[in-house]
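SEVERITY: medium
COMPONENT: batch folding queue
REPORTER: lab tech (J.R.)

DESCRIPTION
The queue accepted two submissions in a row. Attaching both inputs and their returned structure tokens so the on-call engineer can compare them side by side.

ATTACHMENT 1
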Amino acid sequence: MDYDQPQFPPGSGRYPITADRISLGSAVGRDVRGWAGPGGPGPGQSERFGFDAIANVSHLFFKPFAITFDYARMHLYIA
């Protein structure tokens, strides 16, 4: 985490991050930016979802891919 940068929102303890490499299956992203900190990537998410996420995969990761959500089978396809 980049502790030299401002927190977002201020006082939240969330700082910007840049992941050198992340992957989801065979889909690979490099230099993907995001936010990380206590309680997950967004305020109130722990209470809403019932679990903590230390970070999230956002549209910056998915942007170069075509994605399909199959809700009937609960599959995510990335091409």
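ATTACHMENT 2
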Amino acid sequence: MAVQRDNPYGAFNFRVTVDRFGGNADATQAGFQEISGLGMEVTEAEYRNGNEKENHVRKMNGIYKASDVTFKRGIIGWTDFYDWLKDVRQGSQSVRSNVTIELMDEARTGPVMTWILINAKPKSYKGATLNAKGGTDVAIEELVLSCEKMNLEKVEDH
């Protein structure tokens, strides 16, 4: 059963697994500093009957689409995401994968919310900005994934 809380969960405890890379939540695949863009949008179709007495449109639900999701991390020499993008670029037919993003509780005993990106694939990659003056800056790379569908699941035991 879900527990009612007065305080929201912190956004700093999360875990990412990718089916393409084994999908094992217990094995570290890559640490991310930031994930942004989780969302979806429902389009609306506007329609009006020609014999309507009032001069306004009806707004009916149309198709929906999931937003692109951006992942940022410090460069650690792990190139699997770049290799995945290379497969997309070269036209491989087996590039889609499910990506699971879990928001963890404070004790990291388990997830409290889970976002699943269905049939995700890399859309773009940006390498780090390199600057010799910034001696304390971390080299950050960015990967944008597009997906066909996003599911949101609430974990019931937290």
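NOTES FROM REPORTER
The CA atoms of residues 13 and 104 lie 5 Å apart.
No errors were logged for either attachment.
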